[in-house]
From TrEMBL:
It comes from Marmota marmota marmota (Alpine marmot). Belongs to the FNBP1 family. Residues 123-167, 339-373 form a coiled coil. Residues 411-464 are annotated as: Disordered. This is Formin-binding protein 1-like. The lineage of its organism: Eukaryota, Metazoa, Chordata, Craniata, Vertebrata. Pfam families: FCH, HR1_TOCA, SH3_1. GO terms for molecular function: lipid binding. Keywords: Autophagy, Cell membrane, Coiled coil, Cytoplasm, Cytoplasmic vesicle, Cytoskeleton, Endocytosis, Lipid-binding, Membrane, Phosphoprotein, SH3 domain. It is found in: Cell membrane; Cytoplasm, Cell cortex; Cytoplasm, Cytoskeleton; Cytoplasmic vesicle. Residues 1-256 form the F-BAR domain. One of its GO terms (cellular component) is cytoskeleton.
């Protein structure tokens, strides 16, 4: 009995320990969840925000890093799996079992207390019968002593003796009855006590023992489940780590270097040598050669000024690149980059043209079906869509033609504007450089780049008109589209305006024209309808 309280305390400690371990698992789950969340936030922070194809990673080192981020994101997902598995298999099971364990422990303890209360009740009944028997025996002894005293007393009457004898018999009878009652209660108590200590209490203790053992087994299973939750994801985590290693091995330094070369390759020729400028000529000047020297000095001054102006443009490759708006024909880019951009645009336009052609074929087939089976639809309802598709096809073909002309210019398939340079440039002491994008210059005539008809943020034709006599008209043209002509050297025109042609397109996409008021300049050939005089090169039309 004295160990019942100890078992009560021990089983309570077992439940407290179970709940403490459950709290430990809960905190571990929170750690895993927070770890996974922080990993996902980290991946999100460093993942590229791609708004266009141009921003997609190209370098192998960047691609490898983004692959590592993807693997890390998968790794974070596995940490979430660990947390979910622990929450379901360990923590949830522990909380359910702790509730059941408390209920079972309470039931067993109540049974033990009831058994103890019943045994105490039996003991009180036996004790009461014992005390009553003892009291009756003392009363019987007193009655016997009284009877013997009266019986020996010669002065006592016979009636008193008889009365004392009856009292003795009554007390003796009551003592015998209490003796039998006490014997029965004693036998009953001994039986209940034997049953209590050999049957009831051992059974309750056994149940408590089994309950505690099941608790220990449950803890063992939860320990194993705790480890299994981690072990199950190890193969996938290993694959994530292997993916990171493969990403690291995929880094190719030579390929990245080549990408840098291809990205920034301009196609410009290196700048030419600076000429020697002799400022000592005036020291040795004589009267006989004074005029010639002065002429040479004057010419040298002009050329020096021109050389410096041109040399500044040549330093573009190694100095600060001029700023300007992005142009339609990419003339603001170096030749090599311009060629790549134009080729990409032509490929995109060809894909769009193919889609429009497929759509046109599909509409024509549908129209034929409607014409053969009018109940399926009205052929006329497809006409607006067909017209729109045809307009799109014509527009795309014009765009492709225009971009192919620019591409041919860059690739050097056609000549530059070298033959349109003024003869006065040849007389310079130094070779005057060709004009390149945004006011820079290059010596290679085939690598000259000019801006598109839409927007010009720099001077491009600033040396095209220098005190030349007006050229004769060789034809006329009509503006198909309006042209603003912001760039110096270009000529603004309105749609439908008629101009004189004084120099035809040399293959670079520009035609030199003149208004009736004598104003001259270059206009984009694709914006005009050109007709040459019969006595020049025959009637030729450009669209």
């Amino acid at each position: 009995v004295d160990q019942f309280d100890s078992l009560d305390k021990h089983t309570q400690w077992g439940i407290d320990f179970l709940e403490r371990y459950a709290k430990f698992v809960k905190e571990r789950i929170e750690i895993e969840q927070n770890y996974a969340k922080q990993l996902r936030n980290l991946v999100k922070k460093y993942c590229p925000k791609r708004s266009s194809k141009d921003e997609e990673p190209r370098f192998t080192s960047c691609i490898a890093f983004f692959n590592i981020l993807n693997e890390l994101n998968d790794y974070a997902g596995q940490r979430e799996v660990v947390a979910e598995e622990m929450a379901h298999r360990v923590y949830g099971e522990l909380m359910r079992y702790a509730h059941d364990l408390k209920t079972e422990r309470k039931m067993h303890l109540q049974e033990g207390r009831k058994a103890q209360q019943y045994l105490d009740m039996c003991w009180k009944q036996m004790d009461n019968s014992k005390k009553k028997f003892e009291r009756e025996c003392r009363e019987a002894e007193k009655a016997q002593q009284s009877y013997e005293r009266l019986d020996n007393d010669t002065n006592a009457t016979k009636a008193d003796v008889e009365k004392a004898k009856q009292q003795l018999n009554l007390r003796t009878h009551m003592a015998d009855e209490n003796k039998n009652e006490y014997a029965a209660q004693l036998q009953n108590f001994n039986g209940e006590q034997h049953k209590h200590f050999y049957v009831v209490i051992p059974q309750i203790y056994k149940q408590l023992q089994e309950m505690d053992e099941r608790r220990t087994i449950k803890l063992s299973e939860c320990y194993r489940g705790f480890a299994d939750s981690e072990r199950k994801v190890i193969p996938i985590i290993s694959k994530c780590l292997e993916g990171m290693i493969l990403a690291a091995k995929s880094v190719d330094e030579r390929r990245d270097s080549q990408m840098v070369v291809d990205s920034f390759k301009s196609g410009f020729e290196p700048p030419g040598d600076f000429p020697f400028e002799d400022y000592s000529q005036h020291i040795y000047r004589t009267i006989s050669d004074g005029t010639i020297s002065a002429s040479k000095q004057e010419s040298g001054k002009v050329d020096a000024k021109t050389t410096v102006g041109k040399a500044k443009g040549k330093l573009w490759l190694f100095g600060k690149k001029p700023k300007g708006p992005a142009l339609e024909d990419f003339s603001h880019l170096p030749p090599e980059q311009r060629r790549k951009k134009l080729q990409q645009r032509i490929d995109e336009l060809n894909r769009e043209l193919q889609k429009e052609s497929d759509q046109k074929d599909a509409l024509n087939k549908m129209k034929d079906v409607y014409e053969k089976n009018p109940q399926m639809g009205d052929p006329g309802s497809l006409q607006p869509k067909l017209a729109e598709t045809m307009n799109n096809i014509d527009r795309l073909r014009m765009e492709i033609h225009k971009n192919e002309a620019w591409l041919s210019e860059v690739e050097g398939k056609t000549g530059g504007r070298g033959d349109r340079r003024h003869s006065s440039d040849i007389n310079h002491l130094v070779t005057q450089g060709r004009e390149s994008p945004e006011g820079s210059y290059t010596d290679d005539a085939n690598q000259e780049v000019r801006g598109p008809p839409q927007q010009h943020g720099h001077h491009e034709f600033d040396d095209e008109f220098e005190d030349d006599d007006p050229l004769p008209a060789i034809g006329h043209c009509k503006a198909i589209y309006p042209f603003d002509g912001h760039n110096e050297g270009t000529l603004a025109m309105k749609e439908g305006e008629v101009l004189y042609i004084i120099e035809e397109d040399k293959g670079d996409g520009w035609t030199r024209a003149r208004r009736q008021n004598g104003e001259e300049g270059y206009v984009p050939t694709s914006y005009i309808d050109v007709t040459l005089e019969k006595n020049s090169k025959g009637a030729v039309t450009y669209i």
